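Hi there, hope your week has been kind to you so far. Do you reckon you could talk me through the fold, stretch by stretch? Thanks so much in advance, here it is.
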Amino acid sequence: MRQLIVDRFDGKYAICEDKEQKYFAIETSELPSGVGEGSVLTITSEGELLLDEAETQARRERIAAKQRRAFRQ
């Protein structure tokens, strides 16, 4: 399975990035409910997009920890 990270929204598109730093524009109407910037999407072998809530939360926690370390003086 392939994963994408929602980078931003631009009009009716979600701009997503994969692990190889390739970008994809996906119409927001194709996204599962609850998707926002920073959400992790999984593409199944059938081509279905799923919101990976556990990975999204883990990613947000890793980023928050990095920010705390970076801004401690």
In short: The CA atoms of residues 14 and 48 lie 16 Å apart. The chain has a mean pLDDT of 95. The domain at 2-71 is CATH 2.40.50.140 (OB fold (Dihydrolipoamide Acetyltransferase, E2P)). Strands lie at 2-10, 13-17, 23-27, 40-43, 49-51.
